[in-house]
Amino acid sequence: MKPVRWSLTARLTALYTLVAALVMAGLGGLVSVVVNRHFVELDRDYLADKLRLVQQIAGESPSRALLAERLDALLASHQGLFVELRQDGVPVYGAQAPVFQTAPALPGPDQNPLDWPVDGRTLRGLAASSPAPAALGGGPALQWRLALDTVHHSHFMGALHRSLALYLLGGVLLSGLLGWWAARRGLQPLRLMKERASAVTAQKLDQRMPVASVPVEFADLAASLNAMLERLQGDVQRLQAFSSDLAHELRTPLNNLLTQTQVSLAQPRTPREYQDILASNAEEFQRLARMVSDMLFLAKTDHGLELPRRERIDLREAVQSLFDFYDAVAEERQVGLRLHGHARVTGDRLMLRRAISNLLSNALRHAPAGSTVAVDLSAQGDAVQLCVRNGGPGIDPALLPRLFDRFFRADPSRQHGDADGTGLGLSITQAIMAAHGGQVSVQSVPGETVFCLRFPAGGGG
Amino acid sequence: MKILIVEDEPKAGDYLQQGLREAGFAVELVHNGVDGLHLALGGDHDLLILDVMLPGLDGWSVLRRLRAAGRTVPVLFLTARDAVEDRVQGLELGADDYLVKPFSFAELLARVRTILRRGRSALEATSIRVADLELDLLRRRVTRAGRRIDLTAKEFGLLELLMRRHGEVLPRSLIASQVWDVNFDSDTNVIEVAMRRLRAKVDDGFEPRLIQTVRGMGYVLEAPEGMR
Q1: Is domain A307-455 classified as CATH 3.50.50.60?
Q2: Using the beta-carbon criterion (under 8 Å), do A325 and B190 form an inter-chain contact?
Q3: ipTM score assigned to the predicted complex
Q4: Which of A171, A195, A196, A307 has a Cα-to-Cα distance from A322 of 20 to 30 A?
């Protein structure tokens, strides 16, 4: 069976109602007990008072007949009062009264009287003994039993209980209603937030939760949600910019390919011409394929996937082997390659070599002839830094923040050079560093540009 | 050499078949996994080129059943997905190589030849000769028409690769991977520069020119007809 899911309002209302019912029922019970006890005390005093009275009558009566007569008169004027008198177990007065036949052993006048039922009524009584007065012939002590019909109390208690029950019912209903209203009112900010949240879409990420106008309990939640929206908005904007860049980047080569192919098809050409066209197309296709795999690499790395492999890597060795790779290019451009220092990090060998390779390629491209590209390795404890510096005019400070953006090229004239990359190299380096828990930074002044890879101590690297 | 291609995409399959046929292989092409498995079990192929995503029976299953039947024919996987798990699964199942689409045909051809060469215990030659160019592997010395040519270590490695696989077009990516162990693309035209420098040493002042650029494909070291 599916468990019933209660709304918060219903839960709060039920809780309020339950608490109110418990409190009021307790109060009603207390009142009832106190009133009853008060009645018992009253009856005790009343019975003790009547006991003194009948003992006095007994003391003043000259004969048993007269005593009976006087007691009859007394009982006639006291509705609900019963008296029984025995002397040495022998009935003297009122022994026929049926109320005493089922009575328990009754306490004395200094204690609370005892109750017992008779014919649906409740009798309350006490017992006492007194010396037999001389006028009645002396002899053994007199035994008195007095009882009082409590029917008038029962009437009163019944009325009281009915009133209490009515009040309890009304009170519970009212507090339930108030509880429901309070819960609804208290949860109002939540509904407001819900409305705001349902207005949020990918196109309308500028919606924010109200923070100042909601109670403190909700303000934290609202602030957290706002922070989340902020991040999402940033991500979506980057994603949108990326997809439009991507579309643009793909459109240009696709357009070239299409135009070139259709122009070629428009007329018969020599095999040599066809070969040239196809070769040119193949080059363009390779660039496109490379762009796609670079972007896939970025997407995977951005997903924060586990590093494919983790091993200790001697950065000096890695840089040296890349120097071997770039050696011919450096020599042709008359740029020297220099390596300083030692450092080791933990990471994925292929990815780290790729990150460094991108920086070297970048540095070589911008280093003027006759200058040197220098790689400095330094380690402070576990924290490792690899810096690649090259000479040259430096990068326009206004462009520095966008340098690691995808498809960003500092020099627009190089946009579609054959040998030039996809404009993703530095983004890839950045993504690789992020995957290693490190970061890449750049500083540039006229005459020198420095890119640094930083691996934190004991970090993901 | 007989190659079986199992590829469901008709255009890709046709071009692979044509390309490999023109490279001198006998090629059979089928378009789904069930036919592929059937042919592979009944045939005597030297190599299987298997697409991973196939209708009927996927590439993994074809390979699994083939190995279960005791067939050790080499398998080269083609896939559109470049996931590490895929690569690992393929290699665990006993695939011999793995290419992610889009790949260049030159790359495929080079890998196919590498796999087919693996089986044969090639005699460890101490020298390789193409036309009048001679590579002495023991003394690491290069001569052309009797004249000594000085090469750096990497240039020697590059020339060794070209000569060992003379007549084959080698794509840039394969050269970077084999000579420099660089298994990723570089923004810089490193291979072009290295080839240009090697060619200046090996070909300048000699006839005929042995190292050729095949535009859009890569490089080949080849003696012209009649000089082989």
Answers
A1: no
A2: yes
A3: 0.77
A4: A307
Burial tier of B202 (Cβ tally within 10 Å: 0-12, 13-18, 19+): buried
- Please tell me the CATH code under which domain B127-221 is placed: 1.10.10.10
- The full set of domain ranges for chain A reads 8-173, 216-300, 307-455
Return the CATH architecture of domain B2-119.
3-Layer(aba) Sandwich (3.40)
A444 and A400 Cβ atoms separated by less than 8 Å: yes
Chain A contact probe: residue of B103, B175, B187, B191 with most A CBs at under 10 A: B187
The reply to whether omega before B102 is within 30° of 0 (cis) is: yes
Question: From the CA of A332, how many Å to the nearest CA of chain B?
Answer: 8
| Interchain CB contact of B190 with A (< 8 Å) | yes
Question: Rounded to an integer, what distance in angstroms lies between the CA atom of residue A128 and that of residue A121?
Answer: 23
Chain A residues with CB-CB distance to B187 below 8 A? 358, 361-362, 365, 419-422, 425
**Euclidean distance between the first and the last CA atom of chain A, given in angstroms as a whole number:** 51
Which residue ranges make up each domain of chain B? 2-119, 127-221
- Two structure tokens written together for A150: 């409590």
**Which residues in chain B are closer than 8 Å to A419, comparing Cβ atoms?**
187-189, 192
- The predicted-structure confidence for A100-140, as pLDDT tens digits, reads as follows 888 888 888 888 888 888 888 888 888 888 888 877 777 78
Enter the pTM of the model: 0.64
